[in-house]
Batch of 4 targets.
Target 1
Amino acid sequence: MSAEPREQRATTRVVARWGKIVLAILVLGLAGFLLHRALAGQDPIQLLERLRAAEPQRVLAACAFALGSYACLSLFDYLALIYAGKPLSYPRAALASFSSLSIGHNLGFAALSSGAVRYRFYSRWGLSALEVGKVILFCGVTVGIGLAVLAALALLLQPDLALRMTGLSAGQLRIIALGIIVALAAYLAACAFLGRSFTVRGHSIRLPRLRLALAQFIVGPVNFALVAGCLWQSLAIDLEVAYLDVAAAYILANIATLISHVPGGLGVIETVVGYLLGAGKVAAGLILFRIFYFFGPLLIGASLFALSEMFIARRAGPAPAQTSPATGTD
């Protein structure tokens, strides 16, 4: 074997190594930029005073709700890997999920931003681009289910906030809620009774088994309920407000964020929640919510992603998979 191919391979390895380091620095730099932009206009001294004055149990509860949400989100990926036919161990699914979503939540266009990070992780663990696409699709559907379930409940149980924001009548809101419920029931029925695969515009789509679909209906709504809990406890440092009011406001704000694709819902969540609950009363709580659910996870997730780029090597074959008797695969 000539020396030239060996030198080329050595050069390629050096370039790849430095490329990963540069990518890691860029990711951390982006995280810092987003954090700086989001806190622009805020008085750090006043923010620190608010934090010091906040009741410790409120702060701990908000942190616990945020941690619970990200733990729930890790189950999205764990279940999605089963659906894709490439089950991995929970720690790997959790690492990929937290790193991708903590970045995707702040960048906006989460399906693209978090999807790119997911691909970086899962491709190193033996998944093809198609299989990663299945993971992203399953997670996206689970998010939609969670949002739809809580939106229907909010419209039926707490319609006042939606009435103020949309201008629709109570009857119209009930019709929308019932339409959401019918669509969700149709999805479950399709998973239970229809064929496993169908074609849409030339693309074959495989429905998950009923057990996986039911799991989506558990983890999806629980995740949004936990995020609403984080917001509720954050707002509680200055304002006593019912959990259902906060949950309804957050669901409406999240729908507006998904429509606008604003990075991290920056300004959208504040505007909607402030409009519905009183802007002057919730400003400090909204800042705390962003620290607990967006900024803190962003810095941790970006750091984990950067470290993974430097230390997790790409493998030629698939990583050891966690087998399960009910994989949801064909």
Note: The radius of gyration is 22 Å.
Target 2
Amino acid sequence: MKRILVTGALGQIGSELVPALAARFGSDAIVASDIRLPPAGQSGPLGHFEFLDSTNLRQIQDLVRRYDVGTIYHLAALLSASAEEKPHVAWELNMGGLYKILEVARAHRCKVFFPSSIGAFGPGTPKERTPQETLQRPTTIYGVTKVAGELLCDYYHQRFDLDTRGLRFPGLISYVAPPGGGTTDYAVAIFYDALRHGRYTCFLGPDTRLDMMYMPDAVSALIELMAADPQRLVHRNAFNVTAMNFTPAELAAEIRKHLPDFRIDYEIDPIRQAIADSWPDSLDDSAAREEWGWKPVYDLPTMVADMLDKLRAKLRL
């Protein structure tokens, strides 16, 4: 079996994808890579670990050749809020890195997964149940790189018959990786502060409605899409996927069912609020359900209960 390379393996998605892949295919089959080094003692569960700057073509080529890689999950990217602070870095990493990954994959006939996002949509997109195919005019550099990435992956499939696949993720919630500079990171940070301090100050307004997904469902979606019969994939790249929909106020209310004294305050960050307001309120993921059987497991109540349990153990509370 050819090995699987994961870039950005220490990030929010990679931190949970790599162990899931190792559990399914064996640790020896996984090559985890990042521009950071893993914490001491963590290299074992990651299988093979390699330092990788995903904007460095030679480093990518070396890893793919040395480990006989057949599939690449390309997760290395700068997230929405961080990208607005460093747009030039975001373009070089998000687009330059993807281009180099696709070029190496073309030469070695690797399958490629590329994660897109609700950030690929803009204020002109229908806000409710945003269709699979619709107007995409994002107003952030992060969104621009995601739209361009979707199109580039489509191009490599159509022009070079490269097996490229992708998902448009909503906000992702994880107890494994800490918040990493995304607009929806309030939905992760709120749990830490709820358990540690009994209160949280949210940077988005109380009625900001967005689709969300718990990381175990996101990881399942990744693996299921890459295993799907390619003959069934009409869209291939950038499938809308979602699992739940709520506002900060609704999430706080659900947390209060477990922590009755929990309080939430609001100090709105104009940049992140503007980003969130430019995104859809909800996504239509019927194409993913029809073409490869997508179905989430977690809803808001089950996600909140599991997050609190897992974080209590992680934080030793």
Note: The chain has a mean pLDDT of 94.
Target 3
Amino acid sequence: MSNLEIGLWGIGILIVLVLLRAPLGLALLGTSFIGISVMISERSALGLLASTPYDFVASWSLSSIPMFLLMGYLAYCCSLTDGLFKLARKLLSWLPGGLGIATIAGSGLFAAVSGSSVACSATMGRVAVPEMNKAGYQPGFSGSIVAIGGTVGSMIPPSIVMIIYGVFTQVSIAKLFIAGILPGLLSMAIFSLVIIARVKLNPSLAPRESQGSTPDTWSSAILETWPMVMLICVVLGGIFSGAFTATEAGGVGAAITALIAVFRRALSWRRLGQALVETLKTTSTVFLIAIGATLFTRFLALSGVPDYMTNVALSLSDSPLTFIIGVSVVFLVLGMFLEPIGIMLLTLPLLLPIFNHYEIDLIWMGILVVKYLEISLVTPPIGMNLFVVKTVMGSGLNMGSLLVNTFWFVVAEMFILGLLIGFPSISLWLPSFLD
């Protein structure tokens, strides 16, 4: 059996393991180890298995992941972000579906201090859903707003997905972060337009708010919000101005978040422990999958599969646009069955050589990949954000109603994806200022 055949068999076995719901990190490690053992020797496979985890995790850029996660979990566990929704509500409640639009805006603001879509959905579900329920919003409609609002946690910087993509493809994480700003704002704007249009067509989805704003409520919202707004400005402003790297920004952000929690007397030993445990669990899961993907990349390189796949892609079409459309279909289908980071790390070893051959801008491609993963968060049967919202809202939410209402936002996501593919400058204009 040739090395190429071994590589193709390895991909097939990996797909079977994934379909059987085997842990993705272990499936990647196991397939790679056995494949390298067969192609070269068990001794070589053991050597790579011993060196790869250290070589990957020792990357300086990766140390920002636990720091940004800790920043987000501290903000979540200490309820520091509740004021973001309140301020957005004061600004936007006059619009049709104003509370829903405020939830989208609050999600975008929370995304700037968390980097996690799931944490974003969980936080907004806890804060915004009770308010929408009191205002008479239909549960399926309010749940879909929280689910789609949470997806911007992957696009608005700092983004854990972007950090992993940047390390894996060796492109600037700072450029990826700034590239995500306009697509993130565009997504939020279009989601808000969808809410307005649906409420205009069916006012029973979201009755208008009757409460007015007073100077006292405005001052209360501003006092509650300004420390987190300052945190966002320091972290993102520091990265884009070059004052510190993305890695340093994670440490600075986590430290400032802890100080805000201390001054507000919101940080207890229990909450600190909860934030640390969640950070360790998420970091461990992400790193295990990433280490497996790194070893799988080496296995594929030894087998010659990337060159073979490149030749196959070129034989089908020499058009980069046709290839991008094909990649979009692959990601959207995989997104229905796999979790987002797993999708990215499963496919990049195969696709990266083809991206390079077509000379596709990897910053632009990174934004497209993030958008694919956003869509996967709200597409069944896996749809992680849908299950987070269902968990938060409990028996009061009918899953069928949630799916029907989310469908309109998925259509909007497809429209946004088309804009990002058709107009790369949406993603690449701001990064051009860092050159």
Note: The CA atoms of residues 169 and 352 lie 8 Å apart.
Target 4
Amino acid sequence: MRKILITGALGQIGSELTEEMRRIYGSENVVASSRRIKEGHEKLIESGPFEIININDSATLASVVGKYKINTIVNLAAVLSAVGESDPQQCWHINMNGLYNVLEVAKEKNCMVYTPSSIAAFGPGTPKDKTPQDTIQRPTTMYGVTKVAGELLCDYYYKKFGVDTRGVRFPGLISYATLPGGGTTDYAVHIYYEALKNKKYTSFIQKGTYMDMMYMPDALRAIIDLIEANPDRLKHRNAFNVSAMSFEPEMLASSIKKFIPEFKLDYDVDPIRQEIAESWPNSLDDSAAREEWGWNPKYDLDAMTKDMLEKLRIKLNIQE
């Protein structure tokens, strides 16, 4: 029986992954954790075991793993790209020191570790289109630096200590359930809220800036499918490229206009986030994930837009 600990469980991915994993594995077998309680997450906290954990407190982390007989750690505690540039020291402290603690505990307690990387692990010298699985990685952000270092650290713990480490490089993630937490791709979530509420949106990302994106249901499936994948098939293990769609703001606006014809898009570019976006790939080659563990996304841009608008109308109580 899989016993799972999710760190960063009240974040954008964690809040939805906790709910999905509790549905699949049973609420009592999925321990959610966060370094503090966040308002609005009472239902999640009450739906199963919950612990306060700062992943830089290795003693508490080890204690919780022992208490619940955890055998799988999903490490989602992290500082994201734009926030990381405003406080690079904190970004390193949480993303790297925290991951090190997780891996050390996993080594001692014989746990699998899933920790996600990101398209931010690439940089301006990386091939921009259909970025290969194995290629140059010279990121120009602290967030990206921590993701490359995290990929290598997870590989090291697998090869040196036999820790079963796994992960994907996530593109931008889009969700109706939880607002994002300070990433460069956040515009692709906010635009749907504003389309429904105000029929217009001002993008902080410039026209023509392509980025790889994914709808959250596909992202959750990628995590669970890789965790359950046959280890004998995994040649890469960590940092699999996964992709679902690539678009720029005008394409997203055009998709929204199919459902809200009066929608208008304009621009007020944030130079920090624009610089970050321009250092990332336009699209990823995810053939390794498809070959090694059967990755296959279900949502394209229009299917995502249709579902996002339907779900957000209900969430925001907006009538058509």
Note: The chain has a mean pLDDT of 95.
